[in-house]
Write a structure and sequence with these properties.
single chain, two-stranded antiparallel sheet, 7 helices, disordered C terminus
Length: about 325
């Protein structure tokens, strides 16, 4: 079921994101289809299934049923501020890029909060991600260094610099308790969006627009994970290159999958190979057109995608329904 903000009486009048009451209902049982080796069959407890690694920890009970599911990918048409259908400590890696509050059209959800409302919303889903990550599990968050806009309570936009990376770090690390790992700089070289110059050819107030984004890497409770009995598939060359922390490849064309802010498959591909084992479960709570789950499937990982807009769920499901694929040189397929 897709909720709308007019059904939530306690929501502020201009709150652009769906709110929840924060309650975590009892987790239902899940029906896991019989696997190829017969390991899982019938009705089982989802936390037990997740612990055994026999199936992704998803729920199939009434309104929490998945939108799409195959052997590696499960997609939910739900609000990421309430992940009650996922058990605590059941995910090893989160790779995602939330809306940046730039007034883009994401379909079901608006993107024009005041900056304070936006950060409050970040705190809501941040708490949920902290809950569903296992100790040592990582959060890889693709966000900008800063943005050039803000909105007032009526949704009117104004030009104003907002330090997004700094504020996310303060909120997630110092307030919510994530452990800081590192920040990766992604040189996407997208200058087509450049509209703010400040004082043109004058030292009065020139605005610097960085053709780069960041990936803020955090973890729950501790940095180090236990790799006993698990498989890494990152190559020596990839490890040496990617741990330099400055990544240089182009962004994704918005017309390819009809999403206003997609990232290229190369971004989640690198993050998944560098920060997860092949046995891990990858979560994207802002799945959009499905790129993270598509990359995870190509790498043989199980993944869960959460997307609030049913139209984008359909796009993601179509992309993820194809069999895993890879290229000969290990680069992300186009």
């Amino acid at each position: 079921m897709t909720l709308h903000d007019d059904a939530l009486p306690d929501a502020p009048a201009r709150m652009p994101y769906l709110l929840t009451n924060g309650r975590l209902p009892a987790l239902p049982a899940i029906h896991v289809p019989e696997s190829s080796n017969g390991a899982v069959n019938g009705i089982v407890d989802i936390s037990e299934a997740a612990r055994r690694g026999d199936a992704p920890p998803y729920a199939q009970d009434g309104e929490t049923s998945s939108y799409f599911q195959d052997e590696l990918v499960t997609i939910f048409n739900r609000d990421s501020t309430d992940l009650c259908f996922l058990p605590s400590a059941s995910v090893q890696l989160v790779v995602t890029s939330p809306p940046y509050n730039l007034g883009k059209d994401y379909g079901t959800a608006r993107d024009d909060a005041t900056y304070q409302e936006y950060l409050e919303w970040v705190g809501r889903w941040g708490r949920e991600l902290l809950r569903v990550l296992e100790p040592g599990g990582r959060l890889c968050l693709n966000i900008p260094l800063d943005i050039n806009l803000k909105f007032d309570g009526a949704g009117r936009r104004a030009t104003s610099k907002q330090p997004v990376l700094a504020d996310f770090t303060e909120l997630l690390v110092h307030e919510l308790g994530f452990v800081y790992n590192t920040t990766i700089f992604w040189l996407e070289r997208n200058i087509s969006r450049r509209t703010a110059w400040g004082s043109w050819m004058s030292a009065t107030d020139p605005w610097v627009n960085t053709a780069a984004e960041t990936v803020l890497v955090l973890s729950r409770d501790r940095r180090k994970r236990d790799g006993h009995g698990k498989t890494s598939d990152v190559s020596r060359e990839e490890f040496m290159d990617w741990t330099l922390g400055i990544w240089d490849f182009h962004g994704q064309n918005t017309r390819k999958f009809g999403h206003p802010a997609p990232f290229p498959e190369e971004l989640p591909r690198r993050l998944i190979k560098l920060f997860s084992f092949r046995e891990d479960i990858v979560l994207d709570p802002f799945l959009g057109s499905g790129t993270t789950c598509r990359a995870a499937k190509n790498l043989g990982r199980r993944s869960i995608g959460v997307e609030i807009d049913r139209g984008y769920c359909a796009v993601a499901a179509e992309r993820c329904s194809e069999p895993p694929r890879s290229s000969r040189n290990g680069a992300a397929p186009q």
